[in-house]
């Protein structure tokens, strides 16, 4: 791991630019120090929050596999179909048992109603009424048991159609058509790209300050910085490396970011003063990074600098080569032309 300090500017204001009249030819802006966030940068690995392996919950032969690796699946779609002959027969039997129980319950209700009416007219004995009451209770219990068996049979039948729990991409297929799947056997694995996070291994010395600050951002390959939505710090260290695992949750809808990718992750550790200039004022020539410094009487100087990482509002930190208060040209092309003109005038003089 390599420690890098990269500022994230909290205050974006710069000293006002001088007009063309004041410098002779160029608009300039002063290099100023602003309060910036001190960050610790590490490599992190992108992973999916939702990653699931679907398993069989009933026994059956694999009849059809409707999706394969790298296919996109909508939530609720069937991904694997098991042979359902046995389960369907059990479902039909449960439905028949429910119809029989319902008929017996209706019969018991009618008999109880008649017996109660006769008992009220003194034409039936108490024992007959008790017998009709017991038969009605038994019929109700049989109806409830039949309902439960039907629900169980229907669930077993649904188990033959393995569905996606959320929308995502298939990553592994563990079975082939014709195999006998047993309860617990892996069938298909997949991930969702809607919710991603970054996992980073942090040295134990940083954990107290990271817990206190609780902020991190992720730098994408495009240069865009994404603010983390929250940190999860594991409460124990890895015994082999003495590092703590930290998860940085990302917002939804980030394009071109996939599980397994490496990304730079910055954790806030404090604040510092940092010298900044507009990123547009910096020029890059081969291995040289420089700015055009405008001095007294509008004299232009080509100054090598050591630049830091890009920061907020199209600004760039300067590590070395420039002092606070020095003015740099905001238009490098115009500055280069003026410098060339000044050099030519100096030779002529």
Query: Could you tell me the mean pLDDT?
Result: 86
Percentage of residues in strands: 35-45%
| Count of DSSP-assigned helices | 5
The CATH architecture of the largest domain is: Beta Barrel
Radius of gyration: 37 Å
How many β-strands, per DSSP? Answer: 23
Low-confidence stretches: 1-23
Structural class: alpha+beta
Outline the structure in words:
Residues 91-160 form the Multidrug resistance protein MdtA-like alpha-helical hairpin domain. Residues 198-267 form the CusB-like beta-barrel domain. Residues 88-156 form a coiled coil. The protein has helices at residues 20-23, 85-120, 126-158, 207-213, 332-348; strands spanning 8-9, 28-30, 32-48, 51-55, 60-65, 72-73, 78-82, 161-163, 168-173, 180-181, 186-191, 196-203, 216-219, 225-227, 230-237, 243-249, 262-278, 282-285, 288-294, 300-304, 306-311, 315-320, 327-329. It is of the alpha+beta class and 349 residues long. The protein has three domains: 8-49 and 195-348, conserved putative lor/sdh protein from methanococcus maripaludis s2 fold, CATH 2.40.420.20; 53-83 and 160-192, RNA polymerase II/Efflux pump adaptor protein, barrel-sandwich hybrid domain (OB fold (Dihydrolipoamide Acetyltransferase, E2P), Beta Barrel), CATH 2.40.50; 84-159, Helix Hairpins (Orthogonal Bundle), CATH 1.10.287. The strands form four sheets. Strands 1, 3, 12, 13, 14, 15, 16, 17, 21 and 22 form a ten-stranded antiparallel β-sheet that branches. Strands 2, 18, 19, 20 and 23 form a five-stranded antiparallel β-sheet that branches. It has a four-stranded antiparallel β-sheet with strand order 4-11-9-6, with no helix packed on it. The protein is elongated and about 135 Å long.
């Amino acid at each position: 791991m390599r420690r890098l300090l990269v500022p994230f500017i909290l205050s974006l204001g710069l000293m006002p630019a001088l007009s063309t009249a004041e410098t002779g030819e160029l608009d300039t802006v002063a290099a100023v120090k602003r309060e910036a966030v001190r960050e610790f940068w590490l490599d992190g690995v992108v992973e999916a929050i939702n990653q699931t392996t679907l398993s069989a919950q009933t026994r059956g032969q694999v009849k059809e596999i409707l999706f394969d690796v790298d296919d996109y699946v909508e939530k609720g779609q069937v991904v694997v179909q098991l042979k359902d002959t046995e389960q369907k027969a059990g479902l039909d039997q449960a439905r028949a048992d429910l119809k029989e129980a319902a008929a017996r319950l209706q019969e018991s209700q009618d008999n109880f109603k008649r017996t109660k009416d006769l008992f009220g007219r003194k034409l039936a004995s108490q024992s007959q009424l008790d017998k009709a009451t017991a038969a009605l209770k038994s019929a109700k219990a049989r109806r409830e048991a039949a309902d439960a068996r039907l629900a169980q049979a229907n669930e077993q039948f649904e188990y033959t159609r393995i569905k996606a729990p959320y929308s995502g991409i298939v990553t592994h297929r563990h079975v082939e058509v014709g195999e006998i799947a047993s309860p617990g056997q892996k069938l298909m694995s997949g991930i969702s790209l809607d919710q991603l996070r970054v996992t980073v291994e942090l040295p134990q010395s940083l954990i107290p300050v990271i817990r206190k600050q609780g902020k991190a951002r992720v730098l994408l390959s495009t240069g865009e910085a994404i603010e983390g939505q929250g940190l999860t710090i594991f409460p124990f260290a890895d015994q082999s490396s003495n590092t703590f695992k930290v998860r940085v949750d990302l917002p939804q809808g980030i394009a071109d970011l996939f599980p397994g990718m490496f990304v730079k992750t910055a954790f806030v550790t404090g604040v510092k003063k940092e010298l900044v200039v507009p990123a547009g004022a910096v020029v890059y020539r081969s291995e040289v990074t420089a700015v055009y410094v405008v001095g007294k009487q509008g004299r232009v100087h080509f100054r090598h600098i050591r630049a830091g990482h890009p920061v907020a509002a199209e600004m760039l930190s300067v590590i070395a080569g420039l002092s606070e208060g020095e003015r740099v040209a905001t238009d490098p092309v115009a500055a280069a032309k003026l410098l060339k003109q000044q050099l030519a005038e100096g030779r002529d003089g």
